[in-house]
Amino acid sequence: MNKQDSIAENLDMLARLAARLTATPVATITIYDRDCADDGDVQTIAHNATALDKAWQAANQDVDISQLGSPRTAVAQHLGLYAAVPMRNGDGSTIGMIACADDDDRELSAEQLESLKHIAALASAVSHN
């Protein structure tokens, strides 16, 4: 297995962990092609790891999963739950986003949000390793 495949496999595993810990049917880890300006101007996507419940996807075909890495476009999809945490590099620039979603109208618990932040830090480390 080459380095890129290993990184992709680890990010996929972290997306599955994020979905499980947040009790959501979908979680994504989006890595931008280059650093994103802090004003939220999203750059092209270099990698998108997704954990997705197939039954949820079938019932929510109008949801564009690929847009969860951009909070501006994700909130326009009118999900019941959308939570996102930026991934940052060593100098604090945004390099990606970890997000989870559900059609149930609820908020993440403090513990779930903290888990998402930890997974964002791990995904940042994996993507720069």
UniProtKB/TrEMBL annotation:
Q: Which Gene3D superfamilies match?
A: 3.30.450.40
Source organism superkingdom = Bacteria
One short Pfam family name for this protein?
Answer: GAF
Alphabetical list of InterPro entries matching this protein: GAF, GAF-like_dom_sf
* Residues of the GAF domain: 9-124
Q: What is this protein called?
A: GAF domain-containing protein
Source organism per UniProt: Parasphingorhabdus marina DSM 22363
Q: What is the lineage of its organism?
A: Bacteria, Pseudomonadati, Pseudomonadota, Alphaproteobacteria, Sphingomonadales
